[in-house]
Amino acid sequence: xxxxxxxxxxxxxxxxxxxxxxxxxxxxxxxxxxxxxxxxxxxxxxxxxxxxxxxxxxxxxxxxxxxxxxxxxxxxxxxxxxxxxxxxxxxxxxxxxxxxxxxxxxxxxxxxxxxxxxxxxxxxxxxxxxxxxxxxxxxxxxxxxxxxxxxxxxxxxxxxxxxxxxxxxxxxxxxxxxxxxxxxxxxxxxxxxxxx
Length: 196
Description:
The chain has 196 residues and is mainly alpha-helical. The protein folds into 2 domains: 2-100, no CATH class; 126-194, no CATH class. The chain is 48% helix and 4% strand. Strands 1-2-3 form a 3-stranded antiparallel sheet, with no helix packed on it. Strand 1 and strand 2 form a beta hairpin. Helix 2 (16-37) packs across helix 4 (81-100). It starts with a helix and ends with a strand. The model has no long low-confidence stretch (mean pLDDT 84).
């Protein structure tokens, strides 16, 4: 799997964020394999450190793998539904690449439906926003807390996701208007926003 991740990234078939996500899934798979091989199992036992050389044989990919891996992610890591869904989607992508390479194995996801749930975030109320703005004025200029709060307030006023602030250096600014290229909206057209 690691070789495929590296190759796909080198060929620009996946973005840097996708590359990081796939590596994270690979690390979780390694932790899972290491956990399965340990002598003492159960919630009480500490999670072993992932073996970087841990491998998962295609022969061990049975219909139980997807359920066992999902249960492990939920119980041992407390992963939410959407995180587990992303992990499974990544594993399925690389299983499909293995199938294209003519490797035969039982599909552990043949009878599994990948589920997601809507996010549960709630917008700030005007009172909460006012409290944060007041707190911002009380913080020492240049302090870490003030800079973080400054970015958060900027994203609140512009309607940007916090993750989009990383790409602010590439934003086109014309007067009071800016044209960011939002990430995670699956609409790659630039949209125009008014600066506060």
